[in-house]
Structure formats: structure tokens, C-alpha cells
């Protein structure tokens, strides 16, 4: 068996397991979703801090930075689900203050680098992942909080569909490079093919979500809009992570997912798509 075939089999098996975990974790119960993404947040920040600590004159406190990001995710989840009040964010703020003040008592060479890379982990990883709670939990007119797993799950379905459609279309028709400086493998033809595929899937999701006696917060046209938002920002998220890796001089962010690289490699698109989806949802809500 050739190495290429072995890699394809490994990538397929790990991909199927990954999708099964994500779908089950999001759609089963809200507590499971919280635990799943708190774990993902922690693993991704831990991987990120390992990468940046290899840079000259950078010393990020891995444990506290990771713990802060996980706590922030849980605080947002608790607040959005109505479990905890806004005061639950105070320990996170204290941790951020500590991470700044602690540089006064270390012998690290460049405090600005440490602060910058520490805060980047919170803005680039912890905050976007936390926004999935804003998608998942909706306050109803009765005052009760409703868990809508369809919205967060659809973001990932659109991302996976976009990747598959872009790969197929790019392999068949790709000639014009989308962003050769950052990601020479991507083409305009692939991106267009991925976008068309997502629009088809978004229409199906919108139809199912509003079929029979069901009435979702989004109609079919708005589902199509969400699909386009995920396509654009998911692609930018992929390119942002590619720029991050090129800046560090690495190919993959890790090897925790066989055939798929590291956590950042697997969730790069979602780190831009999730916040963009939140902005989109709240924007259309304002103009109803």
C-alpha cells in the first residue's frame, strides 16, 4: 500500500470520527456542547502557546493563558444559558490583570511580546469559540432560554461542505490562484464551487428547519445569507491561519489529528466564521 493511499485512509477515518464527535456533541445536550468546546478551546490555546513560545524572546505562561481562555468560554456559556450572572466574568478579568502584572516579576526578555501573544490567544481563539454560545442560546419572549443546536451545527456543516466543494471544484477546474502569497493551493474556481455547494446545502437546511410545524428564526433566504457569510469568513479564517503558520515557518500547527494536522489546522475557518455568523444573525434581527 502506497504512502499516499495510507494517508488518505488515515485522513478519512480521523475525519469521520471528528465529524461524529462534533455532530453528537453539538446536537445532544447543551452541557455536552459546553464541555466539548471548552475542551477544544483549551487544546487549541495550549497548542498555540507551544508554537509561539518557540519564537525568540517570547515566554507565554501556557497554563494560566490556557486556563483563562477555558474559563472565558465557560463564563460566556454560563451567561448565555442563564446559569451565571455577568459577575461570573470577574475571575477572568483578574486573570488578565495578573498576566500583565506578572511580567514585572519575571526575567523575560521582551514583556511586550509576551503580552501581545498572550492577548492574541484570547482574541484569536477563546473569544471566537465562545461566540458559539451566542448562536446556541436564544432568549425567548417568555424569559426562558432555548438551546438551538441547529445554528452552531449549521456553521460547521457549511464549513465542511465548503471545504469539500472547493476541493472537488479546484481539483477539476482550478487554474486561477486565489491567494498565491499565502495559500498557493487555493483557486478562485474552487472557492466558487465551494460557495455554490454551500448555497445548495443552506437551502436544504432552511427548508427542513421551517418544514411542517417548525418555524425557525431564519427563513430560507436568511439561511442562504448565513451560508455565504460562512463561506467568505471561513475562507479568510483559513488564510489567516496560513499566514500565522508562514510567519512561524511551520507547515502544520500540530499532529493531534492524524492526516489533518493540529487543532488550529482543523478549526482555522471556524475562528472567523463563528463571530461573523453572530454578527450576521444580530444584524438581520435589527432590521426585522
Keywords:
Phosphatidate cytidylyltransferase; 288 residues; mainly alpha; single chain; 2 domains; lipid metabolism; two-stranded antiparallel sheet; two-stranded antiparallel ribbon; EC 2.7.7.41; 70% helix; Tetracycline Repressor, domain 2; phospholipid biosynthesis; 11 helices; 4 strands; globular
Helix content: 55-70%
Estimated share of beta-strand residues: under 5%
Largest sheet: 2 strands, antiparallel
Mean pLDDT equals 89
Structural class: mainly alpha
Beginning-to-end CA distance, first to last residue = 58 Å
Question: Helical stretch count?
Answer: 11
**Which of globular, elongated, flat, extended, rod-shaped describes the shape?**
globular
Order of helices and strands: HHHHHHEEHEEHHHH
Question: What can you see in these coordinates?
Answer:
The chain crosses the membrane at residues 12-28, 34-51, 63-84, 115-137, 149-169, 190-208, 220-240, 270-287. It is a multi-pass membrane protein. It catalyses: a 1,2-diacyl-sn-glycero-3-phosphate + CTP + H(+) = a CDP-1,2-diacyl-sn-glycerol + diphosphate. It is a single chain. Helix content is 70%, strand content 5%. The mean pLDDT is 89. A hairpin with a 5-residue loop joins strand 1 (137-139) and strand 2. The chain has a two-stranded antiparallel ribbon with strand order 1-2. The protein has a two-stranded antiparallel sheet with strand order 3-4. The protein has helices at residues 3-27, 30-52, 62-80, 90-101, 111-130, 132-136, 150-173, 188-209, 220-248, 263-267, 270-286, and strands at 137-139, 145-147, 177-179, 183-187. It is mainly α and 288 residues long. The protein folds into two domains: 1-147, no CATH class; 148-287, Tetracycline Repressor, domain 2. The chain is built from eleven helices and four strands.
Amino acid at each position: 500500500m502506497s504512502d499516499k493511499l495510507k494517508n488518505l485512509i488515515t485522513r478519512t477515518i480521523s475525519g469521520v470520527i471528528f465529524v461524529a464527535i462534533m455532530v453528537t456533541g453539538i446536537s445532544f445536550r447543551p452541557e455536552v456542547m459546553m464541555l466539548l468546546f471548552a475542551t477544544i478551546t483549551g487544546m487549541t490555546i495550549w497548542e498555540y502557546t507551544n508554537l509561539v513560545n518557540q519564537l525568540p524572546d517570547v515566554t507565554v505562561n501556557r497554563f494560566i493563558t490556557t486556563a483563562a481562555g477555558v474559563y472565558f468560554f465557560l463564563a460566556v456559556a454560563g451567561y448565555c444559558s442563564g446559569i451565571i450572572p455577568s459577575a461570573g466574568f470577574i475571575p477572568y478579568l483578574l486573570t488578565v490583570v495578573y498576566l500583565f502584572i506578572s511580567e514585572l516579576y519575571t526575567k523575560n526578555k521582551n514583556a511586550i511580546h509576551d503580552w501581545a501573544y498572550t492577548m492574541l490567544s484570547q482574541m484569536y481563539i477563546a473569544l471566537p469559540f465562545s461566540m458559539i454560545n451566542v448562536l446556541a442560546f436564544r432568549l425567548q419572549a417568555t424569559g426562558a432560554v432555548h438551546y438551538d443546536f441547529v445554528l452552531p451545527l449549521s456553521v460547521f456543516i457549511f464549513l465542511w461542505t465548503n471545504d469539500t466543494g472547493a476541493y472537488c471544484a479546484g481539483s477539476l477546474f482550478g487554474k486561477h490562484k486565489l491567494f498565491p502569497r499565502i495559500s498557493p493551493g487555493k483557486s478562485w474556481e474552487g472557492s466558487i464551487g465551494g460557495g455554490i455547494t454551500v448555497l445548495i446545502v443552506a437551502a436544504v437546511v432552511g427548508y427542513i428547519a421551517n418544514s411542517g410545524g417548525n418555524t425557525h428564526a431564519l427563513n430560507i433566504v436568511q439561511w442562504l445569507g448565513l451560508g455565504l457569510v460562512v463561506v467568505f469568513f471561513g475562507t479568510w479564517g483559513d488564510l489567516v491561519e496560513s499566514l500565522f503558520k508562514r510567519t512561524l515557518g511551520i507547515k502544520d500547527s500540530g499532529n493531534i489529528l492524524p492526516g489533518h494536522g493540529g487543532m488550529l489546522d482543523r478549526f482555522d475557518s471556524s475562528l472567523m466564521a463563528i463571530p461573523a455568523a453572530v454578527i450576521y444573525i444580530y444584524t438581520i434581527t435589527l432590521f426585522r
